[in-house]
TrEMBL record, chains A, C:
CDD domains: TPP_TK. Belongs to the transketolase family. Residues 1-23 are annotated as: Disordered. This is Transketolase. GO terms for molecular function: magnesium ion binding. InterPro entries: THDP-binding, Transketolase_N. The keyword Nucleus does not apply.
C-alpha cells in the first residue's frame, strides 16, 4: 500500500503559455520541459493513488502539452466562451495526465490534484465535464469522443465560426465502429475545422493492436474515409507544434494526424510494455522513473 | 372488441402524433435558432419534411448510424445548440444506449431524444422494429426525463417543455392514430399526472397510445357502476408518486396499461411506488413478450389492452379483492 | 385497400437448381427467368399485403436468385446440415423477395407466401430464423448481418471446413459502424471464406447515399479494411454467376463485391426512384409493372 | 460500519468470482469442444488467461468492438459453437444492447453473455464504467435468462448451467471480493431462489456482492430478536415468484438489496411480484444514481448496503408497519 500523496509531492508549477511571437525554439523548449513536469506529477499521482493508466498517460502527454501549451485557443477564464476551441480527450482513461495538464495550464488548482481518485473527489478515473473546468466531454468508454468532436465541429460550421475542434483518440480505440461512423460524417460534412489525433502507440489493453485486431493500414483507412492524413513523431514537440499549430487547412477535408508514440515513454522499463497499460509503479519503480525523468531536466542537459 | 365503446370513441377523429411533434418543433425553431434536428435517414419516418423545408441547414442527417447520431448531438449541444434527435425508438434507444447513458444522462447534455413509432407501432415489421423495452431501459437511467405522451396535445406540450428544459429528455412520439384525450390547454410537467376520469373503486394508470383505451374502459366500467379513476401518466420518470399513492389509498387497486414491457416500465414504476408507500393489488398490462406478426391495433388488443380487455382486468382485480 | 391475395396470384413455380455441368448459357437463362418470376410474385405480395420494400426487393432479386439458384451449397432437406453454406440477408427489410426466393427453391411451400404480413404469419416484415426454414439470422435492424456472417465464417475456419459464408448488405447500411467493426475482424482473421455483397443501388430510405451520408469511395474503404474488392453489374446474371460462383479465393482475404444495381429494377416508374423504397403499387401500378415484367418473358423475347 | 459483524464475516476468506468463472469455463471447455470465448480486448479484465493458454484457438478477440463481439458470437453459435462472450458489463450491455435484443434474445441464439465487473465494481473509474442499469435493462428483454451470482460457488454453478442450457443467458461475474455464502454443492436453477437464513419477521431479498451483506444484516437482526429470512435470488429473470409471494405472506415485509438500480432491477421485480399476488411493504435498496468517486465497498456502504444499513432498513420497515 503506498502512502498517500502529500503536499511535498505536488511538484507541478503552472506553465505560462508562450507569448505570441515567441521564437519557436523557446516555445519548443518550454513545451518539452512542461511535458517533463507533467510526467513527474502524473507519476506521483498514479503511484500514490495506487491506480491509473500510466502507459497511455505517458504516450499522450506530449500531444496534450503541445495542444494546451501552444495550439488550443482556450484559457481558464474563458471556459464558457462560445468561441473557445474545443478539445475532446476520447481516450478518457488517461484522465491522470489530463488533469495534470489542465492544472499546469491553470484550469485546476495544483493542490486539487492531491484528491485524484479519493472518495468524493471530482477527479475520478475518467474526466467528467460537469465537474472539471475545461473538460468538454465526459469520456471513458472508448469511441465516444470522436462523434462528439464531429458534432462540435459541425456546430462551429453552423455558426460560421473559425473555432477549431481537436480530439485525441487511442489507436486501439479506432476499432470501435462508432468512430468510423463519425469519420464518415466528418468528411461528408467537409469539416476542415476538425483535427483527429490518434495516439498511435501500437498497444491496447491486452496486447499490440496488431495482435488484438489489426488497424493497419490506418492511414489508408482514414484517407478512404475522406481525411487529409499526416504522420508525426508524437513525442517531438517541435514537429507536433508545427503540425498541430498550423492553421492551414486542407480545403474541405478534416485532418487525421497519426502521432507515433510509445506507451510509457520515456521510462526505460515502461516504454512499449503492454503491462504498463494500467500497472502501478511500486516504490522502487517510482524512484527509478523519477530519476529517469530528473535526468532529462534541461539543467541536466537531457531531452525527452 | 370495441362494440361497447361509447360513441365518442368510435367517432372520434384520430391523429398521428408525429404531426403535432413536427408542427411544434417548427414553431419552436422559428423562435429559437439554437434548435436543430438530428436524424438517421429518418426524415420521412419522423415526418420532419416540414422542418427540413423551413430550416434546411438545421437538419443534420448522420446516415444510418445511431451511435454517431447521439454522439454528434452531444457535440452540437456542446456548441450551444439544442438538438432534437429523431429516429425510430427501437434503434435510437437500443443502438445508442451507451451514448444515451454517458453523453445524455451522465453528462447532462441538453439533448432531446425523440423516439419515433415506439412500442408496437411498426406492427407487422415485427419485434426487431418494435420498441417495447425503451421505457424500462431509459427509466433505469439516472438524470433522464422519460415522457410518453398520449395524444397530439400532450405531444406538443412535451416537446415545448423539453425545448425549454435544460437537460436530457426522452419523448416517445407515435404514429399509431389516437384520439385527443387532453384538453387543448393541457401542459406537461415532469412528475405530474392528470386525472382524466374520476372514480373511487379502482384506478387505471396509463399513457401513450393506450390511454384512450383506458378511458374507454373507464366508461364501460362506469356503465356497470364501477368508478374507475384514470391517471394520465406521461411522465414515467420522474413518476408522480403522490398521485399513485393517493390512488392506492383512495381506490385500493390499480391497473396499469402501456404499449411496452411492464417489467420495469410504467407498470413496474407504479408497483415500486405502491409497495414503498401503500401496498395494494396492481395488475400490469403491457406487451410483455416479442409479439407475433400483426398490426399495432391488433397487438394491443391481443395483449389485453382493448378497452374491453382493460375493463376486464379491472373487474377481475376488484373481484379478487372482494373474494 | 387492395383486396387480399388469392390462390390465382400465386404464380410462382419451383425453380429447379441447374444440374452440375449444365452449360453456362442455359444456367444463366434459367436464373434470369427465375428472377423474373420472383419479381412477379413479390410484386403481388407487396401489392396485396399493402406493405413491403419493393425498391430494395427488386435491386436484390438477381443477387438472391444467383446465390440460391447456382452458388450456395444449401438445400431444403439440409437446412440443419452443419456443412451447408451460410447466407445472411443483412438488409432484412427485403424479406418479401427473400421469402419468394426461398419458396422458388423449395424452402417454403409457395402457398405459404399468401400469409405474408397477415396476423400471426411466420412471414413477417423481417425474416425470423426461428420460423422460416433456411433463414440463418433474424435481421431487420441494419448492421447486424455482417458481424453475424463474420462469426459464421470464423466458425467454419475453426472447424477447418470448406463451407462458405455470403452476406448481402444494403449500401446505406454500410454507414453503420458495426459493419466496419466486422470488416476489420474479417480481415484480421483472414476469412477468405467470406463474401460480402453490397447492393449498391445508390439510394437509401430518404435520399441517395451521396446526399444522405456519402460512402464514396466505397471500394477504397473496403480495400483499406483488407478486402479483395470487385465490382459487378448486380442485374447481370452471367456476371454474378461467374463472380459469386467461382470458388477461387484471394489468399487470406475476404471478398467484397460491389453489385451495382437499381432500386426498383426493371420497372420503369420505380427504377432509381427513392420513393419506391417502401411505396406500395396501387392497382394501376400493379398492372403496369406486371405488364412490364410479362414483356420480359423469354417467349416475349425480352431480357431483364 | 462493520463493527457489529459476526466474526465469521470479518474473518471470512474472500474470493474474486472471475476465478471461479474461468476455472469452470476451462473445465467445461475441456469436455465440450463447442465452447469458445469471445472478448473485446478483455482477456486480462475477464481473467481469461488460463482459458487462452489452454485453448489458444478458441479465444476470439474482436478488439474494442462490442457490437461486433455479440454479432460475431451469434454467427459462431450459428456455426454450432457455444460462445461465452466476456467483457466489462457496462460496455457489453450498453454498447451491444441491440445485438443482445435481436441476436441473443429475439433470435434465441445460444449465447452466454458474461458481464464482468458489473454494478460499481470498477469503483473509482466512475459511472461510465459502472454497470448499475444492466439488470433492469436485460430483465426487460423477453427470452433472456438473467443471473446475478453471489459467490464463487454460485458463479461456477451458473456457468455450468448456462453451458448446458440451449438459449441466451446473461451472467454477472464480479471482481469485488466476496465470501462464500452457498454450500459447495449449491446448484443453479432458473426461477428458483434459496433460503439462506430463516426468519418470519421480515425478508431480505438479495443477490450478487450484496448477498453476504444481507446475511450479515440478518445475523445482526437475529441478535436483536428480529427474524429475518434471507432469500438468495440469483435468478432475476425468471424470478422465483412463488418464493417471493410466500415470503410476503409469511413475513409481511421485504427489503431488497442489490448492486444495481432497483428501478426495474431486482427491487422492481420483487415489487411487481408482490403487488400482483400479495401486497406488502417493500423497501428497495440499491445504487439508484450515478455514483460519486469511491471504491466499490465504499459505494455499497454509501448507498445503504453495509450490513448495518440493510439491518436499519429492515428495522425501519418493521417499525413503520407496526405504527
Ligand atoms: C467501449 C470500451 N470498451 C472497453 C474499454 C476498456 N479499455 C480501457 S482502455 C482500453 C485499451 C485502449 O487502448 P488504446 O485505445 O490503444 O489506448 P492507449 O493505448 O492510448 O492507452 C480498453 C480496452 C473501454 N474503456 N471502453
Ligand atoms: C439500425 C437501423 N436504422 C434504421 C433503419 C430503418 N431503415 C430501414 S431500410 C433503410 C434504408 C436502407 O438503405 P439501404 O441499406 O441502401 O437498403 P436498400 O437501398 O437496398 O433498400 C432504413 C434507414 C433500420 N432498419 N435499421
Ligand atoms: Mg494504444
Ligand atoms: Mg441502397
Amino acid at each position: 500500500m503506498p502512502s498517500t500523496l502529500s503536499h511535498a509531492h505536488l511538484t507541478l508549477t503552472r506553465a505560462p503559455r508562450p507569448p505570441a511571437g515567441a521564437p519557436r525554439d523557446e516555445v519548443v523548449a518550454q513545451l518539452r520541459e512542461t511535458a517533463r513536469q507533467i510526467r513527474l506529477q502524473d507519476l506521483a499521482l498514479v503511484h500514490f493513488a495506487g491506480a491509473g493508466h500510466i502507459g497511455g498517460d505517458f504516450s499522450a502527454v506530449d500531444v496534450l502539452t503541445v495542444l494546451y501549451g501552444a495550439v488550443l485557443d482556450v484559457a481558464p477564464d474563458r471556459v464558457d466562451d462560445p468561441e473557445r476551441d474545443r478539445f475532446v480527450l476520447s481516450k478518457g482513461h488517461v484522465a491522470g495526465s489530463y488533469y495534470v495538464t489542465l492544472a499546469a495550464y491553470g484550469f485546476l488548482p495544483v493542490e486539487q490534484l492531491a484528491t485524484f481518485l479519493k472518495p468524493l473527489s471530482t477527479l475520478g478515473g475518467h474526466p467528467n465535464r460537469l465537474h472539471v473546468p475545461g473538460v468538454e466531454a465526459s469520456t471513458g468508454p472508448l469511441g465516444h469522443g470522436l462523434p462528439i468532436a464531429v458534432g462540435q465541429a459541425l456546430a462551429a460550421r453552423l455558426d460560421s465560426s473559425p473555432r477549431q475542434t481537436y480530439v485525441l483518440t487511442g489507436d486501439g480505440e479506432m476499432q470501435e465502429g462508432s468512430n468510423w461512423e463519425a469519420m464518415m460524417s466528418a468528411s461528408h460534412y467537409g469539416l476542415d475545422n476538425l483535427t483527429v489525433v490518434v495516439d498511435r502507440n501500437g498497444l491496447q489493453q491486452g496486447a499490440s493492436t496488431e495482435a488484438s485486431m489489426d488497424l493497419a493500414p490506418l492511414a489508408d483507412k482514414a484517407r478512404a474515409f475522406g481525411f487529409a492524413v499526416s504522420e508525426v513523431d508524437g513525442h517531438d514537440h517541435g514537429a507536433l507544434l508545427d503540425l498541430l499549430g498550423s492553421r492551414e487547412r486542407p480545403g474541405g477535408r478534416p485532418r487525421f494526424v497519426i502521432a507515433h508514440t510509445h506507451k510509457g515513454h520515456p521510462i526505460s522499463f515502461m516504454s512499449d510494455q503492454v503491462a504498463w497499460h494500467h500497472k502501478v509503479p511500486d516504490a522502487d519503480q517510482y524512484a527509478t522513473a523519477r530519476a529517469e525523468l530528473d535526468a532529462l531536466a534541461p539543467a541536466a542537459g537531457g531531452a525527452l | 372488441m370495441t362494440q361497447r365503446l361509447a360513441p365518442r370513441w368510435l367517432e372520434a377523429e384520430t391523429f398521428d402524433c408525429r404531426d403535432a411533434f413536427v408542427e411544434t418543433l417548427v414553431a419552436l425553431a422559428s423562435e429559437d435558432p439554437r434548435i436543430v434536428g438530428v436524424v438517421n435517414d429518418s426524415v420521412g419516418s419522423s415526418k420532419l419534411d416540414a422542418f427540413r423545408t423551413a430550416f434546411p441547414d438545421r437538419l443534420v442527417n448522420v446516415g444510418i448510424a445511431e451511435q454517431d447520431m447521439v454522439g454528434m448531438a452531444a457535440g452540437l449541444a456542446g456548441g450551444g445548440r439544442i438538438p432534437f434527435v429523431s429516429g425510430a425508438a427501437c434503434f435510437l434507444t437500443a443502438r445508442a444506449m451507451e451514448q444515451i447513458k454517458v453523453d445524455a444522462a451522465y453528462s447532462r447534455n441538453n439533448l432531446k431524444l425523440c423516439g419515433m413509432s415506439p412500442g408496437v407501432a411498426y406492427g407487422e415489421l415485427g419485434p426487431t422494429h418494435h420498441s417495447i423495452e425503451d421505457v424500462a431501459w431509459l427509466r433505469a437511467l439516472d438524470q433522464l426525463v422519460v415522457v410518453v405522451p398520449a395524444d397530439p396535445v400532450e405531444t406538443a406540450a412535451a416537446i415545448r417543455w423539453a425545448a425549454a428544459y435544460e437537460g436530457p429528455v426522452f419523448v416517445r412520439v407515435s404514429r399509431t392514430p389516437v384520439p385527443q384525450v387532453h384538453p387543448a390547454d393541457h401542459t406537461f410537467t415532469p412528475g405530474r399526472a392528470t386525472v382524466l376520469h374520476e372514480g373511487d373503486d379502482v384506478t387505471l394508470v396509463s399513457n401513450g397510445t393506450v390511454l384512450w383505451r383506458a378511458l374507454a374502459a373507464a366508461e364501460q366500467l362506469a356503465a356497470e357502476g364501477i368508478g374507475a379513476r384514470v391517471l394520465s401518466m406521461a411522465s414515467v420518470s420522474p413518476l408522480d408518486t403522490a398521485a399513485v399513492v393517493q390512488a392506492a389509498r383512495e381506490t385500493g387497486a390499480l391497473v396499469t396499461a402501456e404499449e411496452s414491457v411492464p417489467r420495469g416500465g410504467l407498470g413496474g414504476a407504479v408497483a415500486e411506488a405502491v409497495v414503498a408507500h401503500h401496498p395494494v393489488p396492481v395488475r400490469m398490462l403491457g406487451v410483455d413478450a416479442f409479439a407475433p406478426t400483426g398490426s399495432a391495433g391488433y397487438l394491443l388488443d391481443r395483449y389485453g389492452m382493448s378497452p374491453e380487455g382493460i375493463a376486464r382486468a379491472a373487474r377481475e382485480l376488484l373481484h379478487r379483492r372482494r373474494s
